Amino acid sequence: xxxxxxxxxxxxxxxxxxxxxxxxxxxxxxxxxxxxxxxxxxxxxxxxxxxxxxxxxxxxxxxxxxxxxxxxxxxxxxxxxxxxxxxxxxxxxxxxxxxxxxxxxxxxxxx
Length: 111
Description:
The protein contains one helix and no strands. The chain has one helix at 3-106. It is mainly α.
């Protein structure tokens, strides 16, 4: 075999090796693209679940705010009722005292 033939054979072998390397790279690229696609799909699912969780959290916050407002209203009503009950008790005590005084003064009169 002549030197030129050996050179041609080596170059041909190098070309075949390069072709095999490129084919491996190509397969790796496809595998990587598949993995990236899977990751993208998983991330999309997580984003949807996070959006749903955020929506539910906002709804819960709105409900908690409404409940808090209602509790404040009830507390205010209870305080008003307590004040009215204290006034009624004081008025009843005054009426009781006045009734006692009236009875003692009416006792002076004999029928």
